[in-house]
Amino acid sequence: MPIYEDYTYTSMTILYQILRNLEEVYRINDRKEVCHDLKYSPCGAYLAVASNDNFVDIYAVESAYKRVQILSGASSFITHIDWSTNSEYLQLNSGASERLIYNVSGESIVDESDIPEIEWSSWTGVLGKQVAGLWHKYADVSDINAADANFYYNCIVTGDDFGLVKLFRFPCPKRGSKCRSFMGHSEHVTNVRWTNDSEYVISVGGADHAVFQWRFRPNRKTTPQINRVRISSSIENESNDDVMDTEDELEGIPELTLDLEEELSERQTRSKRDKRKKRGAKTVTGVEVTSDSTFAKRRDATGGENLANVPPDQSLLIKHVFGYRAHECRDNIHWLKDGRVVYHVAAVGVVLDIATRSQNHYLHHTDDIMCLAVHPEGELVATGQLGKDATVHVWDALEQKIMALLKNGHTRGVSSVAFCSDGEKVATLGLDDYHTLVLWHWKKGYKLASARGYNDKVFGVRFSPVTNNRLVTFGAKHIKFWNQTGGGLTFRQVSMGFKFKQ
């Protein structure tokens, strides 16, 4: 049985029962290029289909999906489309950074200033002065792949090429508006959408092949808007003096997600609490800050003219991750001491309770996790990641807290990791040309020894069950036995016969 949450599994079961009995009703082949977006009009009478050949085709639903209009004029492929609530207008974004608004019945392009009271049924576009705040000063037009506005809570979620899911205020007309960024995807995010009840956000990864379900966490003081937002064309464009860079740090304090901010600050505040109290510190969302700190200034900046400097009150929390990293990985799913299962997807370490189908997530990696090992006591997990910053994390599977961060041991990535029999040491293999083998004292966070592994593929590393000073690495047509001698590693390669080399 698939591992989903109860309600998700039930929904998927019903959907499967429906899908296997579906019959094709209509097939339309009006375009030879790929279709990028399609949406039904709010009245349900029309279907708009945006294609890669610069056109939007309008089909009449009740006329057996007969094409009734063709909207032309875009100079590049169409990326996003949205209907107005009265089904009279359609806005689109194109790959040439265009935002065009069409009068559908007249098949003509109109100026937004001529329709100041227009109300949009959805907003999934990434262009326009209403969403200028999504872009920082040096952004490329292809950086943001998808967006979806929540009219109920006046916020908009985006997915970008950097693996981030971001939450902004909406509308956000001031370029470079502050946001909340959420990590988990290791590659570009291809799409993001709100569920109909506004309780969840669904994001789809590209190369990580993962689907994330995020739980929306509105601020308790936030009063949702009962009606949809009327987006007026009178919104002013920002001046160059107002441009900010959302990727910049605020006086040395990086933007953090709410959960990461709370977790990383927990240990620090214990040791610094007494000193900060003497200086009149206050606590904000689990972080102790002085009254003149950057966080305090950002918290107090609630005036209308300063909203672009303040991220939204709401946040997102990963609820469930669908997927499993099987490509180029081995031995990467294990049982824990308490009967739960640990594995990895994209840049997330997943701890799964099979009985309840609930998940907990380790979210401190910044790129694809490639390997995983469990401590002999069954409570700690070691994971290694891809990328220039090829770090190894040792973390607590019970509370998803980082225990050690092992750096500067590998380049390109970590392909395999293993604990010794007593759990004091960790061995890792790199993805560099020589598949470097590194031996770590993980509690103290330093390297004990390192050596070149092999110039062909190396699949894994294991400690001897008898002694912690002996290891074995294995891969394409070779096996090596290693001994730790002081600060170095020596090896003896097994001579394999012709039979075993095949």
UniProtKB/TrEMBL annotation:
Residues 272-281 have a biased composition (Basic residues). Residues 20-215 form the EML-like second beta-propeller domain. Residues 358-493 form the EML-like first beta-propeller domain. It comes from the Eukaryota. Residues 262-291 are annotated as: Disordered. GO terms for molecular function: microtubule binding. WD repeats lie at residues 182-224. Keywords: Repeat, WD repeat. It holds the Pfam family HELP. This is Echinoderm microtubule-associated protein-like 5. It comes from Halocaridina rubra. The lineage of its organism: Eukaryota, Metazoa, Ecdysozoa, Arthropoda, Crustacea.
